[in-house]
């Protein structure tokens, strides 16, 4: 069974970037719904009578939502005015994007140009030994085998609408103050092993 992860911070700890109300609804309602639906689909499979196509599509959507939300919570921490990467992730970003600011602009643009609902992601490709930016449509994890997701930004309206309404760019700007670069750095270090 899939399990809703506990947050490593208090519900009000990400304010003002993400309000307590926004975070509570996002985690306790939206993320929980993906977990509950995925577990319901597994129960249908256990019963033996199920439509394989519907189960496959439902699991892809709901398990993908669960995985991406879990990664999202893990790459957040209390807001900091100056919040920049350190260590191997800093080195990799500077090598591939010339500077953190260039990377930040490209990632923000990627997030803002998602059509409909989806995620902006920073990934690592072991075959090319490169950091890659990608958009993930809805929750579908159509990533090449072996890609490691280092950082994600949830661009579904349920992630920001209470706080920012239709001003997505303010949500993206606020995101940079709550990124946990230590977590992202450890994900990259793990991928490089």
What does this protein structure show overall?
This protein is mainly alpha-helical and 193 residues long. It folds into two domains: 20-74, Helix Hairpins, CATH 1.10.287; 87-192, minor pseudopilin epsh fold. The protein is built from seven helices and three strands, in the order ααααβββααα. The chain has helices spanning 20-47, 52-74, 87-97, 100-112, 161-164, 168-175, 181-192, and strands at residues 118-125, 130-137, 148-154. Strands 2-1-3 form a three-stranded antiparallel sheet. The chain is globular. The two termini are 29 Å apart. The mean pLDDT is 93.
Number of strands: 3
Report the sheet-strand fraction.
5-15%
Helix- and strand-based class? mainly alpha
The CATH architecture name of the largest domain reads 3-Layer(bab) Sandwich
> Judging from the principal axes of the Cα atoms, what is the shape?
globular
Count of DSSP-assigned helices: 7
CATH top level assignment of the largest domain: Alpha Beta
User: Remind me, CATH topology of the largest domain?
Assistant: minor pseudopilin epsh fold
Rounded average pLDDT:
93
Give the C-alpha Rg: 17 Å
Order of helices and strands: HHHHEEEHHH
Assign the CATH superfamily of the largest domain: Iron/manganese superoxide dismutase, C-terminal domain
